[in-house]
Amino acid sequence: MAFVELRSIRKRHSDKEILKGVSLEIQQGELISIVGPSGSGKTTLLRLIDGLDFPDSGEILIGGTRLTKETAPAIRPNVGMVFQNTVLFDASVYENVAYSLRFRGLPNDLIRQKVEAALSLVVLKDLAKRSALTLSGGEAQRVALARVLVYDPDLILLDEPTANLDPANTLIIEGALRNANLQGKTIVLVTHNIFQARRLAKRVGLLLEGEMVEVQETERFFNSPMDQRTRRFISGDLVY
Ligand SMILES: Nc1ncnc2c1ncn2[C@@H]1O[C@H](COP(=O)(O)OP(=O)(O)O)[C@@H](O)[C@H]1O
Ligand SMILES: [Mg+2]
Questions:
Q1: Residue 156 main-chain phi, psi, to 5 deg
Q2: Half-sphere exposure of residue 4, counting CA atoms within 13 Å on the CB side?
Q3: How many H-runs (helices) and E-runs (strands) does the chain carry?
Q4: Is residue 72, in this structure, part of any structural domain at all?
Q5: Ligand 1 centroid vs 197 CA: distance in angstroms?
Q6: Residue 74: which CATH number?
Q7: Element spanning 168, H or E
Q8: Is any ligand 1 atom within 6 A of the Cβ of residue 52?
Q9: Which positions fall inside the ABC transporter domain (predicted)?
Q10: Largest CB tally within 10 Å, which of 55, 105, 124, 142?
């Protein structure tokens, strides 16, 4: 059984149909990347998997349980989302990462252990005491990832986590994702960066105007895609 299953998901915003019947199965421990032009519905799709919003029709199953308003509170603690633009609290890096554990009532020494481990995964241990609001964009994104890693969710969703970041920060985030995946995390990485998808993903899916055009093993996606639109997208011919 797939860990995440999307069955014919449809979603409208205002009068526009944003997702037009998206189906996808994601296996436990898989790192899958979703690529596609701006406006194709990638963020909308991730928000549905995160249980922040709900489809108009179709269903999402996570670990075999249907994700609904009623089940979301039980499912969401096992899901972590890194947004494109992260808002950090006006507190130290340490406290930003510790927040979810304090919220869960963990003892202080366990919190310290977990926060330090998460910070070292994103190479931020030296900045633990810094005010989060003084960080660079890349450092802030690394804190955002640490905030998710620290509570150890089985499913991690990322919405263009390295858009506009320099190579050094991108490399650290990619390393942390690779490591999390090796530890068995299931990861859905939405990215504009097809090279990043190629470096990290086991499978890649192209979302175009709310339709999942093609999902393939990464090597196949880039070297011998089935769909003409995938060919055009990876060669940069698809204007957007
Ligand atoms: N809350 C919303 N209300 C109205 N339209 C929205 C909303 N969220 C997204 N959209 C529209 O849905 C389309 C897809 O958006 P989005 O999922 O953000 O795409 P992507 O992340 O692929 O760029 C866009 O045309 C966007 O303007
Ligand atoms: Mg988006």
A1: -120, 125
A2: 27
A3: 9, 10
A4: yes
A5: 22
A6: 3.40.50.300
A7: helix 167-182
A8: no
A9: 4-234
A10: 142
CB distance 169 to 138 below 8 Å: yes
> How many residues make up the chain in this entry?
240
DSSP β-bridge partners for residue 13? 16
pLDDT digits (tens, 9 = 90+) for 82-104: 998 888 999 999 999 999 999 99
Instruction: Give the chain's radius of gyration (CA, Å).
Output: 18
Token duo for residue 87 = 């808002």
pLDDT single digits (tens) 10-60: 999 999 999 999 999 999 999 999 999 999 999 999 999 999 999 999 999
Ligand 1 site-directed mutation target among 43, 157, 190, most atoms within 8 Å of CB: 43
Nearest-CA residue for ligand 1 atom 10 is 13
